[in-house]
Each structure stands twice: as C-alpha cells, then as structure tokens.
Amino acid sequence: xxxxxxxxxxxxxxxxxxxxxxxxxxxxxxxxxxxxxxxxxxxxxxxxxxxxxxxxxxxxxxxxxxxxxxxxxxxxxxxxxxxxxxxxxxxxxx
Length: 94
Prior knowledge:
This protein is mainly alpha-helical. Helix content is 80%, strand content 0%. The longest helix is centred in the middle third of the chain and has 66 residues, at 3-68.
C-alpha cells in the first residue's frame, strides 16, 4: 500500500470516528434536552393544577359568601367573615 493510500485510509477512518463521536454526542444531548423538557412539562402541569384548584376554591368561597349575604347583618356571621378579612357594610335603611 502506498503512503498516499495510507494517508487516505487514515483520513477516512479518523473522519468516520469523528462522525460517530458527533452522532453519539448529539444523541446524548438530545436525551438531556428531552428529559429537561419533560421535567418542565410536569412542573407546568402541576402549576396548572394548583391554579385550577385555586380557581375552584375561589368559586366555592364566593358562593358561600353570597349565600351568607342575606344574614350578614348578624354578629356571628360578621365575626366569621371578619376572620377572613371580609368586612360587611351595614344594611342600608329601607
């Protein structure tokens, strides 16, 4: 085998090795990015669940307050609402 052929084979082999290394590195990098993406998706789903629970709680809370509105003039109800920072305005005279 001539020196030119040897150089060509060495160049070809080193190029193939570099390409194989690059493909492996790209595969590993892709897996890392996929794992990070899935982690963020899970985190965002958990945050969305928290938001949904908060919105449901708010609806229930507002419904309770609206149901208590007709009897809000009673001292016990005013005390209960006051514990949660809700001030009841005096009933306007009729």
